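Sample intake sheet
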Amino acid sequence: MPIPVTIRIQSGDFDVARETAALVTGRHDIGAVVSFIGICRRGEGEATISEMTLEHYPGMAEEEIGRHVDEAKARWPLDGVTVIHRFGRVVPGDNIVLVLTASAHREAAFAAAEFLMDYLKTNAPFWKSEKRIAGEDERVWVDARDQDDAAAARWKT
């Protein structure tokens, strides 16, 4: 039986409780659901932001996320996956991304969620720009960080 997979790229917010219920309602094979919610943070100092804009490549983003979900399903015994990523303008405190992984046991759910987030952080076709408070309406494109690349590299086999 194929496991339920939901992948959405959307401008509006998501409801974590509703998405979790959609994944597990009526299922008695699931023993663990791990959730990761990425939230826009304000930052501090010169990096203090007032808003962030997320852009994506429609169609390609969903396809690429789907490829990595398939890889997670091949690596771990998953019983369901949800990945929702927002695009457009977000402000500090807004949700950006949701990853839910469901499995009979917590180890697989934790590992798969971490794997998917490391991919989303480093290789998913999304681009972020920040409007910084000290920047007088200047937008700054967000570069990849070395620690994110290092986290993703550990999954390569």
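Comment: The mean pLDDT is 91. The first strand starts at residue 5 and ends at 10.
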